[in-house]
Amino acid sequence: MEVLSIVLGGGKGTRLFPLTQSRAKPAVPFGGRFRLVDIPISNCINADFRQIYILTQFNSASLHLHLSQTYVFDSFTRGFVEILAAEQTFEHSGWYEGTADAVRKNFIHFRTQNPKYYIILSGDQLYRMDLKELLSKHRDSGAAITIATTAVSREDASQLGILKANKNNEITEFMEKPGPVKDISDFKIPAELRQDKNGKGDEYLGSMGIYVFNAEAMESCLANELTDFGKEIIPAAINKLKVNAYLFDGYWEDIGTIRSFYEANLDLTTLRPKFDFYDEDAPIYTHMRNLPPSKMNFSNMNQSIAAEGCIITNASITNSIVGVRTIIESGSSLNGVVCMGADYYESEIQKQQNAEARVPNIGIGRGAIVKGAIIDKNACIGEGCRIGVDAIPRVDGNYGHYYIVDGIIVIPKNAVLYPGAVI
């Protein structure tokens, strides 16, 4: 085998809580019908890198179900997408202690594939990259390690690894997460090399957390007790190995917080979204649900996306994502809403039981008004609910049936909001 792809599933995903309350971070729904993990896996498949491991240790059941239902290769491709959750062995008895530690503890599985190169990817980023080109540039450079990099602003540089590179793209210095106060002006990209894509003042070269390792280099770099690639492995490698930068000038977003998740979703509804799902040459794959097309009954939709299997009746929807199987009843209004949809349709018997128990059906009830919110899967929003409409101060916290995170109202999975609720 030439290439083995490893997708890092991240830790507990505390910054994406409560979306990660019952699922791993890579399994969080995105864009109405996808999961975050579909992005790196699709990049691999489009590059014909079909031997893929997903490393995770928290709430992996939902992720495992999605992967097993979605990525099934035929017996002639020798391809696979498999989860490697933290496990106890005679050599290791604890959890993954960091990104590098997770890879080290799974060498027993990786070595049997006998790869020449390892590609390390993150499970919570939004981008489309030609990984074949990345590998080709790595191979041609003669480097032991290549780090995919992108130009970032000073604000974004605070939470990323930043680096210096010479005219041959060799990395000479690396600093992990310098924070907002530290003076990092000597890390600025030379003016003649700057490519400010978005007008934010992209003056620094940030690590995307995407690496290519020669197999021998991976073994030598992890022959120790160091636990994290960005904080420890990469800075140590620069001093003894040739480490190159791969300059990526496309769209890239680290979906690390509720705010970035919300904004990246709603950007998909704009006239010219920064990330394009409509690329037939490099599609993003996901679970084929065989659902019917969405049905709009006398509704008004403006710059919004409705995934398959929805029934929307006499509703007004603006700048919103409507996820799979969403039922929106008459008179409802959504504005700036990320609605993840439902895992199933309720039967008539279930609806009758709901009525007897005075519990709303799954979906958005009659006359409900929702503005500036994230509604997780299987939520029951009762008739006449008002969410984010009234002038109520948005103080971050847990309010029982809902959360406010980064100033955004989040209705968690399976939540029930009774008719007339005001948030």
Task: Present the secondary structure layout.
Elements: E1 3-8, E2 29-30, E3 34-35, H1 38-46, E4 51-56, H2 61-70, E5 80-85, H3 99-104, H4 107-110, E6 117-122, E7 125-127, H5 131-141, E8 145-152, H6 154-157, E9 161-165, E10 171-176, E11 204-214, H7 215-221, H8 229-238, E12 243-247, E13 252-254, H9 258-267, E14 295-297, E15 300-302, E16 305-306, E17 311-313, E18 316-318, E19 321-322, E20 327-328, E21 333-339, H10 348-357, E22 363-364, E23 369-375, E24 380-381, E25 386-387, E26 397-398, E27 403-405, E28 408-411, E29 416-417
Parallel strand pairs: 1-4, 1-6, 4-5, 8-12, 14-17, 15-18, 16-19, 17-20, 18-21, 19-21, 21-23, 22-24, 23-25, 23-28, 24-29
Antiparallel strand pairs: 2-3, 6-11, 7-13, 8-11, 9-10, 9-11, 26-27, 27-28
Structure description:
The protein is of the alpha/beta class. The chain has ten helices and 29 strands. Strands 15, 16, 18, 19, 21, 23, 25, 26, 27 and 28 form a ten-stranded mixed β-sheet that branches. Strands 1, 4, 5, 6, 8, 9, 10, 11 and 12 form a nine-stranded mixed β-sheet that branches. The protein has a three-stranded parallel β-sheet with strand order 14-17-20, with no helix packed on it. The longest helix is centred in the first third of the chain and has 11 residues, at 131-141. The protein starts with a strand and ends in a 6-residue tail after the last strand.
CATH class of the largest domain: Alpha Beta
- What is the H level of CATH, i.e. the homologous superfamily of the largest domain? Spore Coat Polysaccharide Biosynthesis Protein SpsA, Chain A
- Oligomer class: single chain
Mean pLDDT: 90
Please state the structural category: alpha/beta
CATH architect. name of the largest domain:
Alpha-Beta Complex
- Shape type: globular
Task: Tell me the domain tally.
Answer: 2
Number of helices: 10
Over all CA atoms, what is the radius of gyration?
23 Å
- First-last Cα distance: 54 Å
Strand content: 25-35%
Poorly predicted spans: none
The description of the largest β-sheet is: 10 strands, mixed
Q: How many extended strands?
A: 29
Q: Please give the share of residues in helix.
A: 10-25%
> Could you say what the CATH topology of the largest domain is called?
Spore Coat Polysaccharide Biosynthesis Protein SpsA, Chain A
